[in-house]
């Protein structure tokens, strides 16, 4: 009898904890990487972005000499790392990568539009889109004014 | 009739700007043409340069809309052009009428023209850590000054507002949504926007007033928010209270925007508790 009560209590507590765990776990522990769809999702987003860029008259010229396979691989790595995924970005610093172009804000805006379109095409939820953009925007200054950073950090 | 022609003209202006060039700003960041013609929200001018023109690009907007409160109707139509995300010039025509059921000495139409200019001083709405700061001017000309001056005792039929605005869009800021905040300080002597003239006959004139807007983008296309606008309250004959609004804005594409709001204008001339609706449709580029 006593055992039965105990068992019930333990089971009850277990159930409560289990349910609570279910309720909390995904939102607390899912990384942005997961919410972007993991490796599959990030890869799809980057491929969609390349597709958008291919049709972007304003930007396509910048990529004329680019090794697109390298760009694709490095960007996938970078988005993975930035979104707390299990990757290490192995590409050039943002300053070095963009040091040979003269970019203005309309180019930056245009790229953001393409990235948003790429995420939309992959049904990335708005919250995850905003989170990713918020993590990329701090790189703005280094992308736009690479010379400022290269003189300081030529070791890269 | 004039109004229809005017709006057509305005829309074709915006359309021709549109044909000229593709504009790159992010959807929604064109902001709207506020009630006095500047790029902003519904009643507050923001630091944003109107339209979708980014650096090196042209942008533009044409809007037609109006406010309907208990005893008053205000129609507003105008155009703005933005260049280089740096400079904005605007024009707005406002027409104030008293609702048919109300009567008295205000059984008339008051029309006003507002010419605006704004320059972005520094900062960027999204990309830079500090807010975008702009300085603007609005030259207002009241075309029917009899009531404001002769009846209400206003000092003048024209005035020049000067304002400084700071705007910032914080990404992923509130419930994982993008949050826009704007504050504006305005140096003005415009009674009810200038519709009731400028200053008071006894010389009581320009003063600083505070304005603010907050909005959240629920997704790419929908934003909700609210605004506050202090008024100079210069007329000795009638009271003037701050304006408030709560708005919903819809940006189905970069070509069109629609905003609807609940507005509370408080006391306007002889009428208090002036609450009602605001709707504006805008063509943008
Ligand atoms: C925050 C914004 C940006 C991020 C995070 C970013 C990221 C990257 C990455 C990871 C690479 C590869 C670097 C490597 O090969 O090691 C890259 C290269 C490149 N990016 Fe960006 N980028 C940004 C903005 C832009 C903008 C606005 C443009 C304008 C068109 C642009 C154009 C390019 C080009 C053309 C390359 C290839 C350079 C080459 O051929 O070596 N990027 N970017």
CATH topology of chain B: Porin
Number of strands of chain A: 0
Biggest beta sheet summary of chain B: 12 strands, antiparallel, barrel
CATH superfamily of chain B: monomeric porin ompg
CATH superfamily of the largest domain in chain A: Globins
- Overall domain count of chain A: 2
Structural class of chain A: mainly alpha
How many distinct beta strands of chain B? 14
CATH class of the largest domain in chain A: Mainly Alpha
**What is the mean predicted local confidence, pLDDT of chain A?**
86
Structure in a nutshell:
By secondary structure, chain A is mostly helical. Chain A is 69% helix and 0% strand. At the A-B interface, helix 6 and helix 7 of A face strand 8 of B.
Can you offer a commentary on this structure?
Chain A is an all-alpha fold and 156 residues long. Chain A folds into two domains: 1-30; 31-148, Globin-like (Orthogonal Bundle). Chain A is 69% helix and 0% strand. Chain A is built from nine helices and no strands. In chain A, helix 3 packs across helix 4 and helix 3 packs across helix 6. The model of chain A is unreliable at 9-26 (pLDDT under 50). With 285 residues, chain B is mainly β. Chain B has one domain (4-284): Porin (Beta Barrel), CATH 2.40.160. Helix content of chain B is 9%, strand content 53%. Chain B has two helices and 14 strands. Chain B has a twelve-stranded antiparallel barrel. In chain B, strands 1-2 form a two-stranded antiparallel sheet. Chain B is globular and about 50 Å long. The mean pLDDT of chain B is 92. The chains are: A mainly alpha (156), B mainly beta (285). The structure holds protoporphyrin IX containing FE. The site of protoporphyrin IX containing FE has 22 residues of chain A, from helix 4, helix 6 and helix 8.
């Amino acid at each position: 009898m006593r055992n039965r009560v105990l068992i019930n209590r333990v089971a009850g507590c277990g159930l409560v904890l289990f349910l609570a765990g279910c309720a909390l776990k995904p939102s607390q522990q899912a990384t942005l990487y997961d919410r972007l769809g993991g490796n599959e999702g990030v890869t799809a987003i980057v491929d969609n972005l390349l597709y958008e860029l291919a049709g972007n008259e304003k930007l396509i010229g910048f990529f004329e000499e680019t090794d697109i396979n390298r760009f694709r691989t490095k960007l996938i790595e970078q988005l993975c790392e930035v979104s707390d995924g299990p990757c290490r970005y192995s590409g050039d610093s943002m300053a070095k990568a963009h040091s040979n172009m003269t970019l203005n804000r309309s180019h930056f805006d245009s790229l953001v539009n393409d990235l948003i379109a790429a995420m939309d095409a992959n049904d990335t939820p708005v919250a995850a889109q905003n989170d990713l953009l918020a993590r990329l925007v701090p790189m703005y200054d280094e992308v736009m004014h690479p010379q400022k950073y290269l003189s300081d950090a030529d070791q890269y | 009739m004039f109004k229809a022609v005017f709006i057509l003209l305005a829309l074709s202006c915006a359309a021709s700007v549109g044909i000229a060039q593709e504009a790159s700003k992010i959807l929604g960041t064109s902001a709207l043409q506020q009630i006095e013609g500047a790029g902003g929200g519904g009643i507050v001018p923001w630091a944003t340069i109107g339209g979708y023109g980014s650096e090196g690009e042209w942008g533009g907007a044409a809007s037609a809309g109006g406010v309907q409160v208990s005893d008053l109707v205000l129609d507003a139509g105008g155009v703005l052009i933005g260049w280089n995300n740096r400079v904005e010039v605007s024009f707005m025509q406002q027409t104030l009428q008293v609702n048919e059921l109300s009567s008295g000495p205000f059984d008339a139409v008051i029309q006003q023209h507002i010419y605006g200019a704004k320059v972005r001083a520094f900062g960027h709405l999204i990309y830079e850590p500090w807010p975008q700061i702009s300085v603007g001017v609005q030259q207002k000309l009241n075309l029917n000054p009899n009531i404001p001056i002769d009846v209400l005792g206003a000092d003048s039929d024209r005035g020049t507002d000067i304002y400084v605005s700071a705007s910032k869009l914080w990404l992923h800021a509130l419930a994982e949504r993008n949050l826009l905040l704007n504050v504006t300080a305005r140096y003005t002597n415009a009674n009810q926007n200038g519709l009731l003239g400028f200053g008071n006959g006894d010389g009581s004139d320009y003063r600083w007033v505070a304005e603010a807007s907050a909005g959240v983008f629920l997704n790419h296309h929908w934003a909700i928010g609210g605004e506050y606008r202090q008024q100079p309250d210069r007329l000795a004959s009638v009271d003037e209270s701050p304006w408030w609004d709560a708005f919903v804005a819809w940006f189905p594409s970069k070509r069109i925007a629609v905003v609807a709001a609940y507005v509370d204008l408080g006391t306007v001339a002889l009428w208090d508790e002036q609450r009602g609706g605001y709707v504006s449709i805008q063509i943008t580029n």
